[in-house]
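Figure 2 data, in text form.
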Amino acid sequence: MFNGILLKSNRPGGSSGLAEGVIRKYGLILILLLAVITLSLISDAFLTVTNLMNVLRQVSINGILAVGMTLVILAAGIDLSIGSLMAVSAVIAASIVAQSPDALLLALLAGMVASGVFGGASGMLSAKLNVAPFVATLAMMTVARGIALLYTNGRPIVIDSPAFKFLGQGYIGPVPVPVVIFIAVASIVSVVLYRTKFGRYIFAVGGNENAARVSGIRVDRVKIAVFAINGLLAGLAGILLASRISSGQPNSGMGYELDAIAAVVIGGTSLFGGRGSMMGTIVGVLIIGVINNGLNLLDVSSYWQQIIKGLIIAGAVIIDQRAKRE
């Protein structure tokens, strides 16, 4: 299940073979536990209830983004626009609740649908016009960011709605609301991915697009659908972020695509498509969240944090390429 982070060995069985099998299967969990243990020894503030709840709240937004990104990468795509889609969704939702504080459902639908349309447009460019996903979403990233700035004249929209703020700041029992939403999203998408024909089509398209097309799968529809779903989830993440900071910021979401892609790749989903798991992505999200939190507690410069994240992604991609060759 947790493939992609550690390579398989061709050596014969025995105790070493058993150990390697355990590492291949549970390698990501072992890495997560090692990170938790190390940080708990280095910082007294890490292993506290308050900090752990803070970690879960922080990873929930990246987790929702990573769930959508997993679908795109499984279909052999990539989406660089999700940070800008977060901003579009955030400012649209914020503008609605600024006018009508009780119009929570309308704000959610409008923000998510708008970002979903942008995501679907990226899918159309890729599937119908044969534009490389990297280029298509790079263009959409710029367009969506410009629209968010134009929509607000470059100014944040302050949110005073208690119902809207509850989405990003509230609790259900002891659990932050964003964490509950993340768990629900991951569960629903996992069911779709592993229990439906559409999920099997995603793996098929990512594994071999030509073979999928010959077998009768509507490849273009699958590609457009995964980008649209990714856009919807980016919109949801943008709304949660706006709720958390009590404002719709046209510049919000910058750099969030980096953490989402890092979590997916670290979780074992191949950038070549067709191979990966949602559980691996979830563990990857937790690893990224724990590392971010630990670096903040240790007062590591944000510049160094960016360097570390980049090196992690580069290492994961190198391992993925070696695994594909083998």
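Caption note: Residues 1-12 have pLDDT under 50 and may be disordered.
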